[in-house]
Amino acid sequence: MIDFEGFNAAFLDTDFLGRDAVWTPTGLPRRTIRVAFSLGVEDVTLGGDIVPQGTIAQAGCKSADVDGIKQKETLEIDGETYVVLKIQPDETGWTTLFLGKRYG
Questions:
Q1: How far apart are the C-alpha atoms of 15 and 3, rounded to whole Å?
Q2: How far apart, in whole angstroms, are the C-alpha atoms of residue 21 and residue 7?
Q3: CA-based nearest residue to 68, from 81, 82, 87
Q4: In degrees rounded to 5, what are phi and psi of residue 4?
Q5: What is the DSSP string of 49-89?
Q6: What is the C-alpha to C-alpha distance for residues 99 and 72, in angstroms, rounded to an integer?
Q7: In this structure, is the dihedral angle defined by the CA atoms of residues 23, 27, 28 and 30, taken in order, positive or negative?
Q8: CB-count burial class (<10 Å; 0-12, 13-18, 19+) for 63
Q9: 3-class SS at 35?
Q10: pLDDT tens digits for 22-79?
Q11: How far out from the chain centre does Cα 16 lie?
Q12: 19 vs 49: CA distance, rounded Å
């Protein structure tokens, strides 16, 4: 049997990808949660011959920590504000949040 909780906890460790993030739920007080944060460059398909690259941010966390999170809410990580674009929970109790950088 796989220990998903222990496995996921390793990602949240400061020596790996772990960061504190401030989540601002709509209509509720801000709260600090622990996330495994990563930035990556990926091709952004716009339906044509030109395929620009864009920066994609992801924050993984315990599903219980973000129960009720919605698209367009924000996470502040390392002094930058990101908007939640997609929420992807899995069966192990882990949720991956796909984030876009907020400008302005």
A1: 20
A2: 20
A3: 87
A4: -65, -35
A5: S---EEEEEEEEEEGGGGTT--TT-EEEETTEEEEEEEEEE
A6: 9
A7: positive
A8: middle
A9: strand
A10: 999 999 999 999 999 988 755 555 555 554 445 678 999 999 999 999 999 999 999 9
A11: 15
A12: 37
The correct answer on CATH 1.10.10 for the domain covering 4-101 is: no
Quick check: 24 and 16 in contact, CB under 8 A?
Answer: no
Quote the tokens at residue 88: 């992807």
Which DSSP letter does residue 21 get?
E
Q: Is 6 helix (H, G, I), strand (E, B) or coil?
A: helix
- The amino acid that residue 73 corresponds to is E
What element of type H or E holds 94? Answer: strand 94-101
SS3 28: coil
Contact 56, 98 (CB under 8 A): yes
